[in-house]
């Protein structure tokens, strides 16, 4: 083990990349295994003029693992509780022509963390923002879930209270996309309970401790997984994914009602296209129904 750590430090210390241009670099950091960091991220952490982090201790530990020295460089804490106070210092550094590397605790910065305000304000100031892509718990969960990945929606963390969580779920439950959320391991049961109130048969995947030693992926329905989770909840970092809603049988009366509202104002083809998109049905079938309704109209 010691030989591997020595080798890793030697590789990191041999990095000789040129100093980066003056910009804010959003550095994606490992969500579990420290070896998942990219070579470009190591380059920037090794050469940036200023370092910023959601938790400076976490970043220092990551740099120590990879043998990257601080060399007296300034390190700025930037998180939810001090963002308004810390942001001017980062903007000032960039205006002075310095490069700043920003890292969240784990994963890709700005995804469910306070960094987005920083990127927004810098863009408004005309300053440069660069992304260093890498680990992401949301995308790692989607990759291993087996759920459709052609369209997905990341909805962040659920509200903690029951009523707010119900309203939050109702806001995306009918969207035709795989939904990805982060959740406290001890509140996963409450999340599933609320989903079961709407759709207990919704295909659901729970990813726990992604990229770590005890990684686990649980697949089933919302109701089935609710029964499988112990009363005290789970342990570790959790990503929960829900499949898109099952296709519903559409009554012809619903289709006729929707067409009747549009046909007086739109050409048949456009009205049919809108209704087909709304009900996720073949356009040709709705077009045929629209023509039939037109003939029926005196």
From TrEMBL:
<dbReference type="InterPro" id="IPR000878">
    <property type="entry name" value="4pyrrol_Mease"/>
</dbReference>
<dbReference type="InterPro" id="IPR035996">
    <property type="entry name" value="4pyrrol_Methylase_sf"/>
</dbReference>
<keyword id="KW-0808">Transferase</keyword>
<comment type="similarity">
    <text>Belongs to the methyltransferase superfamily. RsmI family.</text>
</comment>
<keyword id="KW-0489">Methyltransferase</keyword>
<keyword id="KW-0949">S-adenosyl-L-methionine</keyword>
<dbReference type="GO" id="GO:0005737">
    <property type="term" value="C:cytoplasm"/>
</dbReference>
<dbReference type="Pfam" id="PF23016">
    <property type="entry name" value="RsmI_C"/>
</dbReference>
<dbReference type="GO" id="GO:0070677">
    <property type="term" value="F:rRNA (cytosine-2'-O-)-methyltransferase activity"/>
</dbReference>
<keyword id="KW-0698">rRNA processing</keyword>
<dbReference type="Pfam" id="PF00590">
    <property type="entry name" value="TP_methylase"/>
</dbReference>
<dbReference type="InterPro" id="IPR008189">
    <property type="entry name" value="rRNA_ssu_MeTfrase_I"/>
</dbReference>
<keyword id="KW-0963">Cytoplasm</keyword>
<dbReference type="InterPro" id="IPR014776">
    <property type="entry name" value="4pyrrole_Mease_sub2"/>
</dbReference>
<dbReference type="InterPro" id="IPR053910">
    <property type="entry name" value="RsmI_HTH"/>
</dbReference>
<feature type="domain" description="Tetrapyrrole methylase">
    <location>
        <begin position="24"/>
        <end position="223"/>
    </location>
</feature>
<feature type="domain" description="RsmI HTH">
    <location>
        <begin position="251"/>
        <end position="294"/>
    </location>
</feature>
<comment type="function">
    <text>Catalyzes the 2'-O-methylation of the ribose of cytidine 1402 (C1402) in 16S rRNA.</text>
</comment>
<dbReference type="InterPro" id="IPR014777">
    <property type="entry name" value="4pyrrole_Mease_sub1"/>
</dbReference>
<protein>
    <recommendedName>
        <fullName>Ribosomal RNA small subunit methyltransferase I</fullName>
        <ecNumber>2.1.1.198</ecNumber>
    </recommendedName>
</protein>
């Amino acid at each position: 083990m010691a030989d591997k750590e020595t080798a890793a430090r030697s590789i990191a210390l041999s990095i000789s990349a040129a100093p980066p241009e003056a910009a804010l670099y959003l550095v994606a950091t490992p969500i579990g295994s420290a070896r998942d960091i990219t070579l470009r991220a190591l380059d920037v952490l090794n050469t940036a003029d200023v370092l910023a982090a959601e938790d400076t201790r976490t970043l220092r530990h990551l740099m120590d693992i990879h043998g990257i020295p601080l060399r007296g460089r300034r390190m700025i804490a930037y998180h939810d509780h001090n963002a308004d106070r810390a942001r001017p210092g980062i903007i000032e550094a960039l205006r002075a022509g310095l490069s700043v590397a920003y890292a969240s605790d784990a994963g890709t910065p700005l995804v469910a963390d306070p960094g987005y305000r920083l990127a927004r304000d810098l863009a408004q100031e005309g300053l440069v923002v660069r992304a260093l892509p890498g680990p992401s718990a949301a995308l790692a969960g989607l990759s291993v879930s087996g759920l459709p990945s052609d369209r997905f929606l990341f909805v962040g963390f659920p509200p903690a209270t029951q009523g707010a969580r119900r309203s939050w779920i109702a806001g995306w439950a009918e969207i035709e996309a795989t939904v990805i959320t982060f959740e406290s391991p001890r509140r996963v049961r409450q999340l599933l309970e609320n989903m079961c109130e709407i759709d207990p048969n919704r295909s659901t995947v729970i990813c726990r401790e992604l990229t770590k030693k005890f990684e686990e992926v649980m697949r089933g329905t919302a109701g089935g997984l609710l029964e499988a989770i112990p009363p005290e909840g789970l342990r570790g970092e959790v990503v929960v994914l829900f499949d898109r809603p099952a296709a519903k049988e559409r009554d012809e009366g619903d289709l006729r009602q929707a067409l009747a509202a549009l046909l007086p104002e739109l050409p048949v083809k456009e009205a049919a296209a809108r209704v087909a998109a709304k009900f996720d049905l073949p356009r040709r079938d709705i077009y045929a129904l629209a023509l039939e309704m037109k003939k029926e109209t005196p």
